[in-house]
Design brief:
This protein has five helices and four strands, in the order E-H-E-H-H-H-E-E-H. It is α+β, with helices and mostly antiparallel strands. It has one domain: Glutaredoxin (3-Layer(aba) Sandwich). A hairpin with a 5-residue loop joins strand 3 and strand 4. The longest helix is centred in the first third of the chain and has 12 residues.
């Protein structure tokens, strides 16, 4: 299991606390320091069953500078979104947990973290 975090994020810290309380075996990826590649994002999106705009923090200053709200949210625009997330990792919703069973979740709630733990 791996968790992508920003240590300054309270949701990330809460998720880590829940993983620790459960005695989970996991690795931490500080995705702002070690940004995922476009290919890694494609793989995680497939595991999540989501599109890149679904995990984009659209209120971030980078999103506003890029004009993301006006970008098409369709198959033709998918790669553009992924490239933007790879180039601007602050735009990635957090935390993301990749479970050992091949699934992933955006673990912003206690329920989502517990669900990821159940999918060892």
């Amino acid at each position: 299991m791996e968790i992508w975090i920003n240590p300054a994020c309270s949701k990330c810290r809460s998720a880590i606390n829940l993983l620790d309380e459960a005695g989970a075996d996991y690795t931490v990826r500080r995705y702002l320091e070690d940004p995922p590649s476009a290919q890694e994002l494609r793989e995680v999106l497939d595991r999540l069953g989501l599109e890149p705009w679904d995990i984009t923090r659209t209120q971030e200053p980078d999103a506003k500078e890029l004009g993301l709200k006006d970008w098409p949210r369709d198959a033709a625009g998918r790669d553009r979104w992924i490239e933007a997330l790879a180039a601007h990792p602050r735009l990635i919703q957090r935390p993301i947990i990749t479970a050992d069973d091949g699934t992933a979740s955006v673990a912003r709630t206690e329920e989502a973290v517990r669900d990821a733990l159940a999918r060892k």
